[in-house]
Amino acid sequence: MTISTFLKTSAAIIAVSGFATSAMAQNVEVLHWWTSGGEAAAVGVLKDDLATKGFGWDDMPIAGGGGSDAMTVLRARVVAGDAPTAAQMLGFDIKDWAGTTGKLGNLNAVAERDGWDAVIPEALQEFSKYDGVWIAAPVNVHSTNWVWINKSALDAVGGKAPESWDELIVVLDAMKANGITPLAHGGQAWQDATIFDAVVMGIGADFYQAAFIDLDPAALGGADMVKAFERMAKLRSYVDDNFSGRDWNLASAMVIEGTAGMQMMGDWAKGEFLKAGQVPGEDFICIRFPGTQGKVTFNSDQFVMFDQGGASEAQLAMAASVMDPVFQSAFNVVKGSVPARTDVPNTDFDDCGKKGMADFAEANANGGLYGSMAHGHANPAAIKNAIYDVVTAHFNGEYDSVTAAAELVDAVEIAR
Ligand code: GAL
User: Fold this and answer.
1) What is the whole-number distance in angstroms between the Cα of residue 24 and the centre of ligand 1?
2) What's the CATH number for 144-297+371-415?
3) Whose alpha carbon is nearest atom 6 of ligand 1?
């Protein structure tokens, strides 16, 4: 069955079966990579929400930030004919699954009933729809150009949050002089790439667009890219000796404990600070990566549903639940992300969340929204992984910055 036939067929099945969220003795098996303390707390919000509607939760967690390992397991399960009910998925992976497998369910009936078109920004719909059909329910919007700073460590170096690259270096140097690890980082390819998102955006939004979205060889291999790699090498000098392989949430813990000054990480990191009982503005502060103010490199966690001979009641109820405005507030308050819907009040969000919501709305209105390369919203996985390889090889000292820029051009060309 082709994707379009399947989409039409499942739409018809949904239409006749109805999808009231009445209590049903059904479970949803959900594959996801939300395994850190803060992430697990957010999963708890979703699980509890579904329980109130009568649906049980079969957990399928696959550890590994950024979700690469989860995608490998998912592919194996689908190939074996054992797809989960639903899976967390990002950006271009959703498009790939929709386009090549024909196994994603059609959510149009619930999307139309609940008016998703009017409340989900176009930038997200780009990944939630395929051939005009809703095939994913966006639960949030994260962004990667954030820095999380220990407040006491910042106060100890003068208390002023850096607003430019030069100010950032002054703060990092001062933290180093104070005897702490200036930059908490985990040496994993996706984490290196997450910093690279922000560093490239810090050089310029047009440059980010040309390099990561348009894949222009002149941008990928030019002087600005050499400068971006030089900045990565500079940041590398503020990382401790044990960074290799460290999980991102352990790097967050270093900032929470004050053994490190800051972490450059997407806003899922906030979930760790909150889980540890920390308060924004008091224990930690959140800033946009210096030089990227007004720009948002976003990624959106979405749930896709797998064909179960037509979408099941549980799948439709789950899709409706994750899109419920009350749920989107409750979930994202804990997760560190902002709602995927534009009509959710910011009342329950802390100051970082309010800033995240305002930044997203402003960027969405002013063309300042860019898909995150590191988190699969700029390119298909093959290109993303090719960029990862070069960024990590450079971060680990295998290439100097000029060589890395040249390698980037070649790696992207081969992957295309
Ligand atoms: C991102 C995902 C977030 C968070 C993070 C670290 O790709 O969008 O929800 O889970 O990975 O695991």
Assistant:
1) 30
2) 3.40.190.10
3) 65
